[in-house]
């Protein structure tokens, strides 16, 4: 029996529902097929997002602030829907079917976007002069929104499940496979960056020089190819059995704790309830969030008779392990909250920074760089940072500290610092651009200043993303309970969502406070605005947030308790007590 268990994965099954054999399932080949879907998702989502602001302003004739908010709302919704995708994967569909259905929905969305950008009836007529421009009407914008939010729905489902399904292909109890899984996070981000690089170079060029409908059609076809490859690996994948919705689990613990809020906690934590069936996965009791411990106090009526046997009511009583799982998720929240601001600064790279680029000199000889392709420096910074970290920093850090690179919290901290420097650099660059605009006239189509002035802000924020994304992904997956990893991934991705939504909120507030009728810091024509002040505001907010992050980190890593005694437990039959 032990021999059989050694060549199967304990908590995984194959496509027929039998225990997954290590030699026939899992590993890098299935993981690569899963990551193929991720490349195409990035190609579509980022290929649309980085150049959408120029389409909204130049073709749909919308003001700059409104265009920026549409882009950030779209990106925010993409990541917010990760929570829905995670819930469906955990409760009903499983990760495999969530990926398959979501990829199909995104394909439908990119096809709809290709049609909406092709038909002249779905966009306003070209401008007659600078000021005689007719904005897109409600019907035209409605079709555009339909296509965009179909893509967002598909992206949400994919983002919530791809990283989790990828890690499912490696056995955490096998040291060799565990080592491979550690590299999976970096490879995962490398694939994301590869898809983004293709999006901001090849796809943006096709949009500007050949046609947007062709570019979005390519996205649809590439996703169909990726779906076919994904399906080809069906027999090779390892599937983890769903343990039900973690949301229900969390609500049960909270409900039981509220019901027993007036009860006194026993001095000996060994008197709290523990389920004997959880012997192999028990989590040691901790002193934080002690009000939740009341959910594990055994009280009359917690067990209900079912024939000759009795079973606990999970809405009245929870085991110590289940309570500790909820505590583990609660401990993630302060770190979660203080990493949101990074993605607000990131949002500026695909909105206002692209608008800045569209006003500057972008020619190299006879070739003109598309404004949306400036984000190639952003992606290049990510790839360079990952390469340097992988090949230089990690080996040196291992020799010096004996550890495999920076911890996930250290990586997040580095990312936040780089985003602060990036926003400061952006404010300085914008002041120089505005000085030139004032000298030659704000209505000048192309200002005599090189677009390469924007490289520092793209590079600093891009390098920051390389650190913070891998740090967050590692932190939220490894620090979450096993049964809540999909939910935890969704929680991580909501930091991106809220970062984009906060960007939209700040833009709206700043526009209302600093001026109306197309004026103020965020004027309709950015040559007459004060975008440098907006970037300065983000720099200050990011600095304050970093201080809050450090406080949360200190709180997250509590001191070890001195009384590390092994307490007894009350088992599920309420008959055994150990001291």
TrEMBL record:
It is found in: Membrane. GO terms for biological process: oligopeptide transport. It comes from the Eukaryota. GO terms for cellular component: membrane. It is a multi-pass membrane protein. One of its GO terms (molecular function) is transmembrane transporter activity. Its main location: membrane. PROSITE patterns: PTR2_1 (PS01022). The chain crosses the membrane at residues 70-89, 96-119, 139-158, 188-207, 213-233, 332-355, 367-389, 409-429, 449-469, 490-514, 534-557. Keywords: Membrane, Transmembrane, Transmembrane helix. Pfam families: PTR2. Belongs to the major facilitator superfamily. Proton-dependent oligopeptide transporter (POT/PTR) (TC 2.A.17) family. This is Protein NRT1/ PTR FAMILY 6.2-like. It comes from Cucurbita maxima (Pumpkin). The gene is LOC111485151.
């Amino acid at each position: 029996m032990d021999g059989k268990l050694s060549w199967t994965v304990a908590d995984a099954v194959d496509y027929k529902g039998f225990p997954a054999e290590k030699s026939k399932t899992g590993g890098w080949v299935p993981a690569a097929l899963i990551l193929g879907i991720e490349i195409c998702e990035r190609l579509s989502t980022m290929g649309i997002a980085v150049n959408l602001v120029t389409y909204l302003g130049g073709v749909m004739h919308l003001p700059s602030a409104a265009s920026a908010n549409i882009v950030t709302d779209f990106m925010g919704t993409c990541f917010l829907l990760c929570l829905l995708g995670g819930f469906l994967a955990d409760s009903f569909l499983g990760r495999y079917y969530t990926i398959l259905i979501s990829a199909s929905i995104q394909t439908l969305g990119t096809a709809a976007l290709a049609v909406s950008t092709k038909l002249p009836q779905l966009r306003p007529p070209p401008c007659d002069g600078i000021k005689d421009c007719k904005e897109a009407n409600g019907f035209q914008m409605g079709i555009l929104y339909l296509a965009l939010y179909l893509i967002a729905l598909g992206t949400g489902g994919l983002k919530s499940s791809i990283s989790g399904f990828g890690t499912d292909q490696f056995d955490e109890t096998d040291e060799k496979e565990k080592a491979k899984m550690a590299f999976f996070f970096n490879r995962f981000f490398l694939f994301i960056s590869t898809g983004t690089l293709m999006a901001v170079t090849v796809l943006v060029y096709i949009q500007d020089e050949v046609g947007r409908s062709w570019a979005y059609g390519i996205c649809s076809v590439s996703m169909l190819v990726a779906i076919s490859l994904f399906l080809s690996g069906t027999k090779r994948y390892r599937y983890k059995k769903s343990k039900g919705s973690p949301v229900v689990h969390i609500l049960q613990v909270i409900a039981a704790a509220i019901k027993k809020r007036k009860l006194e906690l026993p001095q000996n934590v060994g008197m709290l309830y523990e389920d004997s069936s959880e012997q192999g996965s028990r989590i040691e009791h901790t002193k934080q969030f002690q009000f939740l411990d009341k959910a594990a106090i055994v009280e009359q009526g917690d067990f209900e008779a079912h024939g000759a046997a009795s079973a606990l009511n999970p809405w009245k009583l929870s085991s110590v392990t289940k309570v500790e799982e909820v505590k583990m998720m609660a401990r993630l929240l302060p770190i979660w909250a203080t990493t949101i601001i990074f993605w607000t600064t990131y949002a500026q790279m695909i909105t206002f920074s692209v608008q800045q680029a569209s006003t500057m000199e972008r020619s190299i000889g006879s070739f003109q760089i598309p404004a949306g392709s400036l984000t190639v420096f952003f992606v290049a910074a990510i790839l360079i940072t990952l390469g340097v970290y992988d090949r230089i920093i990690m080996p040196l850090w291992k020799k010096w500290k004996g550890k495999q690179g920076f911890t996930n919290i250290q990586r997040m901290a580095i990312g936040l610092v780089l985003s602060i420097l990036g926003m400061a650099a952006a404010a300085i660059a914008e002041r120089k651009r505005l000085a030139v605009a004032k000298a030659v006239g704000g209505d000048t189509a192309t200002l005599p200043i090189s677009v390469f002035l924007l490289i520092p802000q793209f590079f600093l924020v891009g390098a920051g993303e390389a650190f913070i994304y891998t740090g967050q992904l590692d932190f939220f997956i490894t620090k979450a309970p096993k049964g809540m990893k999909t939910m935890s991934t969704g929680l991580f991705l909501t930091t991106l969502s809220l970062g984009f939504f906060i960007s939209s909120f700040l833009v709206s507030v700043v526009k209302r406070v600093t001026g109306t009728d197309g004026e103020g810091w965020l004027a309709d024509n950015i040559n007459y605005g004060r975008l440098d002040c907006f970037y300065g505001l983000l720099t200050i907010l990011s600095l304050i947030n970093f201080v809050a992050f450090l406080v949360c980190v200190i709180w997250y890593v509590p001191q070890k308790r001195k009384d590390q005694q092994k307490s007894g437990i009350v088992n599920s039959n309420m008959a055994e007590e150990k001291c």
